[in-house]
Structure formats: structure tokens, C-alpha cells
Specification:
The complex is a heterodimer of chains A (about 190) and B (about 130). Chain A is mostly helical. Chain A has 6 helices and no strands. The longest helix of chain A is centred in the C-terminal third of the chain and has 31 residues. Chain A starts with a helix and ends in an 18-residue tail after the last helix. Helices cover about 25% and strands about 35% of the residues of chain B. Chain B is built from 2 helices and 9 strands, in the order ααβββββββββ. The chains are: A mainly alpha (about 190), B alpha+beta (about 130). Chains A and B meet through helix 3 and helix 6 of A and strand 7 of B.
Chain lengths: ~190, ~130
């Protein structure tokens, strides 16, 4: 089911690429990148509402923090560049798949939710990374937009790595201790 | 009555102009001593500890400092737009550093110190700590 939805995301990106022989404009690229971030923020907020795993919550919190930061930067940049983000079939498809995934995850709870959420994060970040690398960055006209997209790519790559680590933890230990677990082994605080 | 009052004022050191200047002088002296104490890196152990800076930007730890010794302080300066951590692989420290903020760590173990960011696992740095 997860693979199917990931395939749909991939198809959304490739369909968009096929439909536009000239490649997406900066206005469309900005909208796609912003949408991709917003979807991850929504998914993270759902996780924060449902998950009791410290590892998953820490991960979700960092998704919200990081994507809000880069999206705020993006909004500022497009304003400076005089680019108005333009809705397009790719971002629309991303939105609808994001909504579908939220509805699907809403039915889950506990470890099942944790597992499904994190697995989707791994797959989602992989897909968006590929799109950034092959479609969004190469087609960006404004150098500064390209620079910010490259930052976004780095960020998505790190998020993917982080998600993979958390996925492993879920498989091995069930997601790590809940925030109130007195036996949780957390790293010692620094000086 | 007025004379007595005047006499009282003169003999009570807290109200005399001479004491006011002394109070200010004392304050200045105190601040100077404090500044001197802060400038001199004296630590309870007796060894002189140094401050080293590692800048964080573009999802990367900047070049590691050299000449780091046990007891020195590493200041992590996060110039990035994202919150990061400096987390020792041997778990000897784990510092959260908000975007635009800094954090500090006292290095306590000699040898190769590997650190990374908990949120961005690809961010890895390494420094040598001498005894």
C-alpha cells in the first residue's frame, strides 16, 4: 500500500515532466517545493498528535522545525525575486496524495502508526530527493532559487537518513521509550 | 536642631559626598577585578583552559579546531537556519543549538572525538583532544 502510494508520487513528478516539454518554471518549482514541505509538516503534526514514541516525536518535531524554516526562507526569496508561486498538476497531485496518506494513517495507532508514519517518511523523502535532483534544481532559472533548492535537497537527504535510523529503532526496540519512561536512556546533557 | 541634624549627616558615612565617590570607586575596582578574573582562564583544576569555536552552517560542521586539550571549552556557533545538535558519539555530551544561537561543551576525554547532529545524521565532525 505504501509502495503503491510512493509510486503515485513518482508518477506525479514524471507525468508533470512529460507534460511540460520545456520543464517547470520557477513559479511552478517554488510552488512544488513549498507544497512538498507543507505536506511533511502536516504529516509531522499528525504524528505529534498520535505517537507516544520519543524517537518518533523528536523526528516529527524536527520535520516541523526544519520545513517551516526552509519554507519561510523560500517565501522570502520568491518575494524578493518577484516570483509568484504557481499551482500546477504536480503540486496538486502531491497535495491529494498527502491528504490520502493522512487519512490512511489516521486509522492507525500505537506502534502500527509509528511504523507506517516513519516508513512513509523514508519513501516520501526519497521521492522528493529524486525530484529535486532531476527536475526541480536543473530547471530552476534564478541562481538563488537553485541555491535554496540545493539546501532543500541536503535537508531532505538528512531527513531521509534520520527517518531510516528511526525506522530501524522501531523495528528493533519498538520506537524508543515514551517521554515519561523513567528507564529511558537518553544521552547525557552537555556541560 | 538643624545643626545637630547637619552634624549627624556629616558623621554618618553613608550620606557624605566622600563616601559616594568611594562607593563608585569601589564599584569600578570591583568591576575591574571581575573583568581581570574573566579574562584570565583560571580553572579550579589549575590548568589554563582555552576556548575553541566550531561554526555550523549549510548543514555542516566547520573545520575542527586544533590544539584542543582536555578541560578546554568548545563553543558551537550555529549560523544555519536550522536547529542542530552537537552530539558526541561516545555520548559524553549532547548539546542542542538553536538556529542563530550557540552552545558550549567542556571536552573531558582525550583522543579522537567524533560528533554529529541528532537531527541530521550526515552531519559529522571529528577533532583530536590532547591530554
Amino acid at each position: 500500500m505504501i509502495r503503491a502510494l510512493t509510486m503515485t508520487t513518482v508518477l506525479a513528478f514524471s507525468a508533470a515532466a512529460a507534460a511540460q516539454a520545456t520543464g517547470p518554471t520557477d513559479a511552478q518549482i517554488a510552488h512544488i517545493a513549498y507544497t512538498a514541505g507543507e505536506i511533511d509538516i502536516a504529516a509531522a503534526k499528525q504524528a505529534l498528535a498520535k505517537s507516544k514514541s520519543k524517537q518518533v516525536r523528536d523526528f516529527a518535531e524536527s520535520m516541523v522545525r526544519d520545513h517551516v524554516a526552509v519554507n519561510e526562507k523560500a517565501l522570502g526569496l520568491v518575494k524578493e525575486l518577484g516570483v509568484t508561486p504557481q499551482s500546477n498538476p504536480t503540486s496538486t497531485a502531491l497535495d491529494s496524495q498527502g491528504a490520502k496518506k493522512l487519512a490512511e494513517l489516521a486509522k492507525l495507532s500505537g506502534r502500527a502508526f509509528d511504523r507506517a508514519y516513519v516508513q512513509n517518511e523514508v519513501a516520501y523523502h526519497q521521492t522528493v530527493n529524486d525530484a529535486l535532483r532531476t527536475m526541480l534544481i536543473p530547471n530552476a532559472d534564478h541562481a538563488r532559487l537553485r541555491g535554496l533548492l540545493e539546501t532543500g535537497l541536503r535537508l531532505f537527504q538528512e531527513h531521509q537518513l534520520h527517518a531510516e535510523q528511526v525506522a530501524k529503532t522501531i523495528d528493533e526496540h519498538g520506537g524508543g521509550a515514551s517521554p515519561h519512561d523513567p528507564h529511558a536512556s537518553a544521552p547525557r546533557a552537555g556541560y | 536642631m538643624a545643626a545637630e541634624h547637619h552634624r549627624t549627616i556629616r558623621t554618618r558615612p553613608l550620606h557624605g559626598p566622600a563616601t559616594r565617590m568611594t562607593g563608585k570607586a569601589t564599584r569600578i575596582a570591583g568591576q575591574t577585578v571581575a573583568a581581570l578574573l574573566l579574562a584570565l582562564p583560571f580553572w579550579p583544576s589549575g590548568a589554563q583552559a582555552k576556548l575553541h569555536t566550531v561554526a555550523i552552517d549549510g548543514m555542516t560542521f566547520g573545520p575542527p579546531p586544533t590544539g584542543v586539550r582536555v578541560g578546554d571549552v568548545v563553543v558551537w556557533v550555529n549560523k544555519d537556519m536550522f536547529k542542530h545538535t552537537a552530539t558526541a558519539r561516545d555520548r559524553s555530551f549532547d548539546v542542542d543549538i538553536e538556529a542563530g544561537a550557540s552552545g558550549r561543551t567542556v571536552v573531558r576525554r582525550p583522543g579522537k572525538l567524533t560528533y554529529s547532529c541528532r537531527y541530521h545524521p550526515g552531519m559529522i565532525g571529528q577533532m583530536m583532544v590532547a591530554k
